[in-house]
Amino acid sequence: MASTHIVRHLRQNVISGGSPRGRFFRHPEPPRERTRVWPVYISFQGCPGRCVFCAQSVQAGAPPVSLGETLAAMEGGLAQAARDGRGPYELAFYGGVFTALPEPWPRRFLEAALRFRRAGLIGRIRCSTRPDACPPGLLAELAGLGLDLVEIGAQTFDDAVLIASGRGHDAQATRRAARAVRAAGLDLGLQLLPGLPRHDPAALARDVAETCALAPSLVRIHPCLVVEGTALADLYRAGRHVPWPLEATIDALAEALVPLWRAGVAVARLGLAPQPELEAAIIAGPRHPALGDRARARALLALVREEAAALGGAPAGLFAPRRFAGQLLGHAGELAPAYAALGLPRELLRFTRDEVFFLAAKAV
């Protein structure tokens, strides 16, 4: 059985006799797919306007180009990758609103991708879109052309925050769009943007509950940053927007992770991918190179706290899967005092080959 190694270690090193007493538990995070992504940037294309936080021109790392140039670059790059024997890739359309591109561009992009898919270079295709650009008929057509997953930029389910952010749609549009994506036979992804104007951690908790109810395959959570050249930067300088502090953001992300994991939702990313151009343009907001890792470590601490509360006595040690060795105590060991306060100093932490955790109780 999976826990044999833990039980043997306990009997040899922790318990003087009898069966070990404590709690076995598993980490609830669903497996995360590790795929190579081929990004195609359609920055601003299909967008009805510009949201207060929008910094696509910086995130893409290049100025916007025409759809024809984008398609030609995509085909040329993929053809070269095929000649080089690289791949397979997940083709991802970033930026803009893929489902709001003028006809016949969504079809042209997918028909071109299909040729590479048949050759084995592309294994999966996804796109990002807005909640108010998901007509059921179009989604069904795109699914028939090979689209696999649609990520909806929900940002939040708080209507007041959506208005303050200039989104141009309400939360009900996101609910309708999510149902339409699933009805078309497509996988659903949702993107959340905590820290927008008038948004707070309590609102994020409500967003997470709504997200779980919609049962997406994956979620990305990008804490809001103030980027030069955006309307949000003007609000920040005018004192009308206060970004979330870093520590409060990490705590809020950690609290969001556990219910998402338990609902079977894969959290694909926490925070924006590091890009030199973007980093240079950020003027305020919660950013840290290990933001995601720090949040995941605090979420794991919350799970251990739950088990410790249910233990019914003082712990004798924690046995954790070896793959969590770099995460358990947090970034630079910042969570060591919290574990010590639970009665789990470093010397009572062990890592094993098992995939289960075991929180041992002291003999009474």
TrEMBL record:
Cofactor requirements of the protein: [4Fe-4S] cluster
A single MF term (Gene Ontology): metal ion binding
One Pfam family of this chain: Radical_SAM_C
Alphabetized SUPFAM superfamilies for the sequence: Radical SAM enzymes
Highest rank taxon of the organism: Bacteria
Keywords from the named record: 4Fe-4S, Iron, Iron-sulfur, Metal-binding, S-adenosyl-L-methionine
Domain (Radical SAM core) ranges: 34-266
GO cellular component terms, semicolon-separated: cytoplasm
One biological process term in Gene Ontology: tRNA wobble base 5-methoxycarbonylmethyl-2-thiouridinylation
The keyword S-adenosyl-L-methionine appears for this protein: yes
Name of protein: Radical SAM core domain-containing protein
Native species: Solidesulfovibrio magneticus (strain ATCC 700980 / DSM 13731 / RS-1)
